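Translate sequence into structure tokens.
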Amino acid sequence: LPSGAAWWPAARTLFAADLHLGKGAAFRAQGQPVPAGSSARTLARLEALAVAHDAEQLVVLGDFWHGAAGLTPTLLDEVGAFAARLPTVLVRGNHDRRLDPPGLPLRVVDGALPLGPLLAAHEPPPLGTPGFTLAGHWHPAVQLGSRAGDRLRRPCFACYAHALVLPAFGGLTGALTLRQDDLARDGASIAVIGDGQLHWLQPAR
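Result follows.
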């Protein structure tokens, strides 16, 4: 989806990766001047997608949370209300492993989660791994350039024969710039997030 999520119609399942909820609060706790409201906007975007597609569940491909300092009472209340409306599965990521807030209606899974013909995981598997995995972790992006020398970095989906790597869905996340020649060598297709649509890049030559 152009939002950075993925939709599986047959299973009525929405996938999103790397929300990093509470990151702004964690930064503010360290005295960094980060604006408030990013986590609430991330949850609102997810809920709007779920309603638009009549989703029956959300699977978060890791890094639902950012860190312990961001687990404010307000955020925990918002997540609890969200997950009560939309059944939510968290496949733990590296930021989630030491965090387990009590009392939330989340299903939490360690490792990979089998979903019919798919696996849901946080970290992308190595090239050549059997099956097909939906993953996050990389926060993938590509750099685009014009003939005039302008440069623009945009988040993207990276689709390999064995895996689809989703961009980070959260509003305060960085990105890993993937080299287009490396992607071409590995047989990956790239869908760049544009203004309300996805743009599939021509393979690098």
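Note: The chain has a mean pLDDT of 92.
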